[in-house]
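#struct-pred

JT: dropping the chains for the assembly here, can someone run the whole complex?
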Amino acid sequence: MANVKDVAKLAGVGLGTVSRVINNKGSVSDKTRAKVLKAVEDLNYIPNEVARNFKMKETKLIGLMLPSVWHPFFSKLAYFIENELDKNGYKMLLCNSDSDKNKEIQYIEMLKKNQVAGIITISYHDYYAHGKVDLPLVTIDRYITDDIPHIASDNYQGGRLATEALIKGGATKIGYLGGKPPHRSSVSDRMKALIEVASSYGLPYVIEETDGSNDQVAVEKFIKAHPDVDGVFTSTDLYAAALIKALRQKHKKVPEDVQVIGFDGIQDNDNFTPYLSTIVQPVEAISRQSVQLLLGIVRGEEVPKETILGVTFRQGNTSNSNKEIQAIVTRKSSNKEKY
Amino acid sequence: MANVKDVAKLAGVGLGTVSRVINNKGSVSDKTRAKVLKAVEDLNYIPNEVARNFKMKETKLIGLMLPSVWHPFFSKLAYFIENELDKNGYKMLLCNSDSDKNKEIQYIEMLKKNQVAGIITISYHDYYAHGKVDLPLVTIDRYITDDIPHIASDNYQGGRLATEALIKGGATKIGYLGGKPPHRSSVSDRMKALIEVASSYGLPYVIEETDGSNDQVAVEKFIKAHPDVDGVFTSTDLYAAALIKALRQKHKKVPEDVQVIGFDGIQDNDNFTPYLSTIVQPVEAISRQSVQLLLGIVRGEEVPKETILGVTFRQGNTSNSNKEIQAIVTRKSSNKEKY
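RK: done, full complex below.
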C-alpha cells in the first residue's frame, strides 16, 4: 500500500506539501494541489487517519489462530469466541495454522495488514514473544511471556481429579499418556498433578509423553511397555478413545481391567461410545472470557495476566463409578468477579 | 458510513461539486474545495473508489455463513474453505447463524458493510433471493434461485446407494428418517431416491420427516410407529447414532435386527462406535470448489449454476456387509473438468 512518501515522490513535492493538501491546512498552489491529488489517486493512497477511521468504524476485526477448526475441541471454542465477538460488535477472521510455524507467521503478518484489533491464539510457537506482534494478544492454554495474558483451564486440578478418580475406582498402578507440549504450557500440570497425587497415595506410576505424531503407534507402545497399569489418564479425549480401542483389541476390558480417563469433554452426547470418563474443560467460559480479556486490552484497560478456570470430572463408562468422586465439581475461577 | 450526499449537504454544495473535488477534475474555487475537503474530513467520508481500492488491496475478505461451526460436518467444511481461501490470498470471516433468520440478516448486512468480496452460505432462508444481497454468492446444499450458483453432493445418488445397500443387506421394509428442509433443497433427493429404489424392488417403505427440533423424540417416535422396519436410512449421521442408541435400548440389534445407514461421513476414525455405515460427502471437494466458484464470480467469470459432486458409500458396522455394494464408489462431477 502506498504511503505518504510515495505520494510526495510521484508528485515531485515535499512531505509537508502533501500533508497540507491532505489536511487542507496551510497554503498550496492550485497546480501543486492538483499534482498531489493526482498522485493520491494514481497510487490509491489513503491517508493514515482515513484508513484508521475506516478501520475503527467499519472493520472491527479480531483474528483467531487455531491449529485446526476441524478438531472438535477447537470448533466448539471457535463457535463461542465468534458468538461473544459478535455480541460485542466484532467480526472474527479464522486462521487454521495446522501447527505450522511458518504458516502461523504468515497469518500473523496478514492479520496485521488487515489491521485487526487483536489476536486470540492457541499457538505452539514463541513467535509472539519477541515483540514482533505489536497487537493486543490473548493466548489460550499456552504461556508465552509474562506480558501476554493467557487463559487456561485449571490443568492441575484436572490432573488431580482424574488421578483421584482412578485411585478411588481401584487403580493400583497409574499411567499418564499425553503429547509433550513443545513450549511452556500449563498442560504439563495435568501430568504433574498425577505424579503428586499418586505419590501421596504411595502408588506406582508411569509417564509417557509423545511427540503427538501418531496416536495409534503411541497407544500400542504404551500398552506393550506397561501391561500392569490398570488406570490411565490421557491428555486428550481422542487419546483416550484410541487407547480404549487398542486395549479392547488386546481383550482388556475397560473399565474392569483398565480404567481410562480423558481430558477435554468433547462428547456432547452419549450416542457414540465409549462415553468417556473425562475432565470437562469450561469451553464456553474460556471462549467468552478470552474475548473479554482481549477487548479489555483493546480499550486500554489493565487485565489479569493469568486467568485459570475450574474444570469438572464427568463420570462416563470408562472408569469405575464412585459416588464420592461424582460429587467433586469445582468452579474455581481466579478472576471470575471481573466479568 | 457517510456517503457523497452527506458530504454535499454538510459542505452546502451540489453533488457535482463534490465529485469534481474528489476526482480533481473540472473547476472549483479554492474556498469551495476547502469546504468540501473539510466535510470529507469531518464525516470521515471515503470516496467509493478509494474504499473499493482499499478493500481490493487490503481486505480480501470472504464471509462464510454456517448454521454452527460447532457441528462436526460444518467444522470440516470451514477448515477446507478457509484453507482454499488462504491459498488464494483471501481471508475468511466466520459467521454462525444458529439457523436464526434475523441473526443471519444482521450478519449479511455486517458483511456488506465490511465490504467482503462475496459470501459462501449454507442458509435455511430465502433472504438472498430478492436481490437484497448485492454480492457474489455461492450456496452449499441449498437451492435458492436459478441465478445463485449452488454446489451440493449428489443427494439422489446417496439415497440410491444407501437404499440399495439396505436391500442387498437383507432389508424387507425400508424406513427414511430425516429433517424436513424448510426450503427447496436437494437434500430432499435423498428421500426421493429411497422411494424410487424401494418401489423398483417392490418393497414397502415408510417416510418420517421431522422438524429437527428434537432428535431423541423423533427416533423414539419412529421406532414405536414402525416396529417392523428392518432397514433405516437417516438424513444425517447424528440421526443415525441417536436411532441406533434408541434401538439398542429396546434390545434391537444393529445391524442384525435393524440395519442403519447415515449420511455425511463425519467420523474420521473408528475409535468411537457405532462406526456408522454411511454416505460420505466429499467435504474437501465441496469446500474447495465452492471457493473456486465464488472467486470465479468475483473475477467476473461465468460459472456453472449447479455443481453436483459424487458421494461414496462407506461400509461401517451398522449395515450388513455386502461385497457387491462395497465396490460402488462413484466420482461423478457435473463440471469437474472446470477446475
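JT: nice. Residues 52-58, 326-339 of chain A have pLDDT under 50 and may be disordered. Residues 155-282+311-338 of chain A form a domain with the Rossmann fold fold (CATH 3.40.50.2300).
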